[in-house]
Design a protein that fits this description.
- The protein has helices at residues 8-20, 28-36, 38-54, 72-76, 129-139, 164-169, 176-184; strands spanning 60-64, 81-86, 96-100, 115-121, 143-154, 187-196, 199-201, 210-218.
- The chain is of the alpha/beta class and 219 residues long.
- It has one domain (26-218): Rossmann fold.
- It has an 8-stranded mixed sheet with strand order 3-2-1-4-5-8-6-7.
- It is globular and about 55 Å long.
Length: 219
């Protein structure tokens, strides 16, 4: 039976792809997330979709804490060159290169003033407050003066509803005001967004489950 809404040509092309049985394997963490509660994978991808849209057309972009690159696949399609950086050696993922390093102590292997944008999703909340300034200094080390930085993290207000394991690992969640003030130490312009599941908004900050700071104008 022909697929609903597909032309004969589209149905034939879709069937051919299915016949090839092409599969893509998720990394261990995201595969487990998909198996246990698929909507969490949706939430994660929504955050990367925001980054991809904000950085559309950028040249050299760095992701700090890239993991296995599952989310980065969205950003790869939007920018010219993506470099992933993480403490574990995940290796290259499609369309990008990889550097091993700990942003708390290591600067990326990118010359000063060459980076068009840097982003870190679900990273800062794992960095102790005593090391957050060092991490941000290293994160912005290679950024151009007009470069863009995006930081995403769970809100402090969301933590009573987080799992015990998450609360144990999240040592540095912040309110909107605290995250704004931190990023204003490094950038002249800081724009704050909230996310509720996969929905982006600019609503009441204390009801945001997730925060995104879009920053420009490197100090």
């Amino acid at each position: 039976m022909r697929g609903i809404g597909l032309t004969p040509k589209e149905f034939a092309e879709t069937s051919a792809l299915l016949d090839q049985q092409q599969t893509q394997q998720l990394g261990a963490m995201h595969a487990a997330s998909f198996a246990e509660d698929p909507k969490h994978l949706l939430f994660m991808l929504a955050r990367y979709h925001f980054v991809a849209r904000m950085l559309q057309g950028k040249g050299l972009v760095l992701e700090v804490g890239c993991g296995d690159g599952t989310g980065a696949r969205l950003v790869v399609l939007a920018v010219n060159c993506l470099i992933g950086m993480d403490t574990a050696d995940y290796g290259d993922f499609p369309g990008s290169t990889f550097q091993k390093g700990d942003i708390r102590f290591d600067q990326p292997d990118i010359a000063t003033g060459e980076l068009d944008a840097v982003y870190a999703l679900d990273v800062l909340e794992h960095i102790h407050p005593s090391l957050e300034e060092s991490a941000l200094v290293n994160m912005t080390y290679s950024l151009k003066p007009d470069g863009v930085c995006i930081i995403g993290m769970p809100s402090l207000e969301s933590q009573p509803y987080a799992s015990e394991n998450s609360r144990r690992e999240h040592v540095n969640c912040k309110t909107e005001l605290a995250l704004r003030r931190l990023m204003q130490r490094f950038f002249t312009n800081v724009f704050m967004f909230g996310m509720q599941d996969a929905t982006l908004h600019t609503g009441f900050d204390r009801m945001a489950h997730y925060r995104l700071a879009l920053c420009t104008g490197l100090r």
